[in-house]
Amino acid sequence: NFMLTQPHSVSESPGKTVTISCTRSSGSIASNYVQWYQQRPGSAPTTVIYEDNQRPSGVPDRFSGSIDSSSNSASLTISGLKTEDEADYYCQSYDSSNGVFGGGTKLTVL
Amino acid sequence: QVTLRESGPALVKPTQTLTLTCTFSGFSLSTSGMCVSWIRQPPGKALEWLARIDWDDDKYYSTSLKTRLTISKDTSKNQVVLTMTNMDPVDTATYYCARTLAFPYYFDYWGQGTLVTVSS
To answer: pLDDT tens across B70-100, in order?
Structure first.
């Protein structure tokens, strides 16, 4: 089994761009797709990125995902930050048929 | 329109068995590639995947909890049931069910979650 490690928190100002990383502890990040979920306080998670870099319908193109084999990590980038983007973000992948979540990153937009 | 809703007790005592039901609509668990997973989140903590059941009745469990978990489905009722034995206060969490796509294995629709508190 592997782990996904995320920074505990990040902060940025409205209108700026922020990137949240998700580093895989063993095995290649490219071996299994990575998803990203947004969770606002008191709500269930919703998908903002699936299959490394695909956006579900309704998710603005300010959200983008990528993977970097050299650092064995995935990244979620949010541009043109809005106060409504303030939330917890979780990366997720899988190991055989077991789901694996990162520890989550709290994004503060101040 | 896909919806999922979790139901079960809000409070259980230590050592008791927890039974949660996920009732869903908008998809069929007999369709190839469709699955339902359970995921939990202790207060203020991260998401933790627990178990998954597939359209063909294959079942998968978290390595750390597999001895305590059982997942089952009733396709005719559009329900998935999770049981967790020997509950402990550390199992206090919001429990979510989520529709899961077998490939690329992600949780595309979630229920609103149900908070389960373990306390005597």
So the answer is: 999 999 999 999 999 999 999 999 999 999 9
- A contacts of B48 (beta carbons < 8 Å): 101
Residue at B85: amino acid letter: T
Q: Do A90 and B52 touch (CB under 8 A)?
A: no
CA distance A9 to A30: 25
Strand partners of residue A91: A36
**Rounded alpha-carbon distances, angstroms, from residue A101 to A95, B21, B47, B116:** 11, 23, 6, 21
Ramachandran bin of B113, using left for φ above 0, alpha for ψ from -120 to 50, beta for the remaining angles:
left
**Mean pLDDT, rounded, for B60-73:** 96
Using an 8 Å Cβ cutoff, are B50 and B36 in contact? no
Q: Which residues contact B3 (CB under 8 A, 6 or more apart)?
A: B24, B25, B26, B109, B111
Shortest alpha-carbon distance between residue A9 and chain B (Å): 13
Question: Which of A43, A99, A103 lies at the smallest CB-CB distance from B37?
Answer: A99
Which residues 39-98 of chain B have a CB within 8 Å of chain A?
39, 46-49, 52, 58, 60, 62-63, 96
